[in-house]
User: Which sequence fits this backbone?
């Protein structure tokens, strides 16, 4: 499967910063609303890594 790319802006909601995720990305991952995810800050590569949360 080819990598998908999308450009997004960081916005504000209350006192938090928000990055929206493209619906087609979520569909391909079969992620649902209110699903738990894991977010990792990779400082060495200057990126955020978003994964499905596993117990």
Assistant:
């Amino acid at each position: 499967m080819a990598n998908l790319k999308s450009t997004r802006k960081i916005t504000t909601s209350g006192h938090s910063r928000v990055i929206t995720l493209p619906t087609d990305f979520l569909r391909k991952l079969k992620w649902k609303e209110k699903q738990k995810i894991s977010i990792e800050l990779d400082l060495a590569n200057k990126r955020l890594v978003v994964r499905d949360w596993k117990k």
About this structure: Residues 40 and 49 are 5 Å apart (CA to CA). The two ends are 27 Å apart (CA to CA). The mean pLDDT is 93.
